Amino acid sequence: xxKTLASNRKAFHNYExxxxxxxxxxxxxxxxxxxxQSNASLVDAFVxxxxxxxxxxxxxxxxxxxxSTHVLDYESKKSRKLLMHKTEIIKLSTxxxxxxxxxxxxxxxxxxxxxxxxxxxLAKGRKSxxxxxxxxxxxxxxxxxxEVWIK
Length: 151
Prior knowledge:
Layout: E1 3-7, H1 9-14, E2 15-25, H2 29-36, E3 40-41, E4 46-50, E5 53-57, E6 60-61, E7 80-83, H3 86-99, E8 102-110, E9 116-125, H4 128-150
Antiparallel strand pairs: 1-8, 2-7, 2-9, 3-6, 4-5, 5-7, 8-9
């Protein structure tokens, strides 16, 4: 059983997700408490690679409301390190460099062992006409399901 803390629903609209990988994330204590209260957002978040390490950029975690006064210079959108195997990092970074794909965080959740994890996806950008076609298919499927339910 996993509890979702934040999800990037816009990524499923803007990108075609080719592969999903679970990764840990390095957070400080007050960031963990704030994230567990679902004070996180993945809007405009992405993953960058540097020196065989993966970093999540633009993940917003609001400051914890009951934080002590010694942490006044808190950055809510700072770069956060992702914990992944080196082979996974190499695989993803080479695909991003070669094929022009992107790696985006899809979801932040708590797994069965009470650890905060990030689900990242290897994604290919969709064109505007692809997005419109996807919406049409979704609407048609919804209408068909309604008719079946009514009968």
